[in-house]
């Protein structure tokens, strides 16, 4: 935030003054400046946004007054059914910044410590900092270069999305009905870079998005779209994504994400699996146990 303020000519170390002065700046200038390397330095996709939801002081207009992880862990959320899930290559979102030249993949070779999840609250240059980085390099990069695009994208899928999504589902399921999905159907217009299903592709089957819409699609694309729209409509109207047997949905009953951690795999066929991405989740569970430092804002 201070770098941004300085780049915009705000000469102060007082955060209250900085905030007041930034409020006077046109929002378009603020957003453009965030991506200015000469001011902000190299852009890190998951750690360089100065504007994001934050914990507020208690008050009549406050929206989030406690850490999100704490709220979920203590069951302080609406006890309503939830659908939650992800695609198979959510890290494509982060790779967009590499592909566009907004950031340089080699930054992770020269400054590998930025691979350490900020959510773990690990002090820089500590024993746990080195241990965490070593274990991440071993598990996700097989002790080879951290600039391998495929391995980097897989890691970003976990660090930005699926680790937190899975943990959220676990916490929600203690108090509410949760239905977990993984979209693994690779359609005719993939938004990924390494053969998976990219970030945001599930949304495109559910909603009209003007700059992404196309009439060039296959019969199977249309079938997947009809299935997803039906599932989500069922959920909105009944709280259950498969309330009755339906040939369109291959007569599948989508079980809740409970002790068995069942999930729906959405591919050419709809199938039920258990314990999504178990190896990754076990890796993070153990690493957080050994080196994570509470309280967590996120997971």
Automatic annotation (TrEMBL):
Pfam family, one: COesterase
Matches recorded under SUPFAM superfamilies: alpha/beta-Hydrolases (SSF53474)
DNA repair among keywords: no
Keywords linked to the UniProt accession: Glycoprotein
Coiled-coil ranges (or none): none
Gene3D superfamilies: alpha/beta hydrolase
Domain Carboxylesterase type B: from-to ranges: 2-284
PANTHER family assigned to the protein according to its UniProt record, in alphabetical order: CARBOXYLESTERASE
Protein's UniProt name: Carboxylesterase type B domain-containing protein
């Amino acid at each position: 935030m201070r770098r941004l303020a300085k780049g915009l000519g705000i000469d102060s170390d007082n955060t209250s003054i900085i905030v007041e002065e930034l409020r006077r700046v046109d929002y378009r200038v603020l957003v453009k400046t965030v991506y200015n390397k000469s001011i902000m330095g190299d852009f890190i996709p998951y750690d360089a946004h100065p504007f994001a939801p934050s914990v507020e002081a208690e008050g009549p207009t406050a929206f989030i007054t406690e850490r999100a992880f704490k709220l979920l862990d203590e069951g302080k959320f609406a006890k309503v059914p939830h659908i939650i899930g992800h695609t198979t290559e959510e890290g494509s979102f982060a790779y967009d910044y590499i592909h566009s030249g907004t950031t340089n993949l080699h930054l992770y070779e020269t400054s590998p410590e930025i691979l350490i999840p900020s959510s773990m609250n690990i002090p820089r240059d500590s024993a746990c900092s080195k241990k965490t980085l070593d274990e991440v390099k071993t598990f996700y990069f097989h002790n080879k270069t951290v600039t391998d695009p495929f391995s980097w994208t897989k890691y970003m899928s976990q660090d930005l999305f699926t680790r937190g999504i899975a943990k959220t589902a676990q916490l929600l399921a203690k108090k509410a009905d949760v239905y977990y999905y993984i979209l693994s159907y690779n359609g005719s217009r993939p938004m990924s870079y390494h053969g998976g299903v990219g970030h945001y592709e599930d949304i495109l089957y559910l909603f009209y998005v003007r700059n992404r819409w196309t009439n060039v699609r296959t019969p199977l694309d249309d079938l997947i779209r009809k299935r997803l729209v039906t599932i989500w409509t069922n959920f909105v109207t009944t709280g259950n994504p498969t309330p009755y047997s339906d040939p369109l949905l291959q007569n599948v009953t989508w079980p809740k994400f409970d002790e068995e951690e069942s999930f729906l795999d959405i591919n050419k066929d709809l199938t039920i699996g258990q314990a999504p991405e178990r190896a990754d989740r076990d890796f993070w569970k153990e690493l957080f146990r050994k080196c994570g430092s509470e309280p967590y804002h996120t997971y």
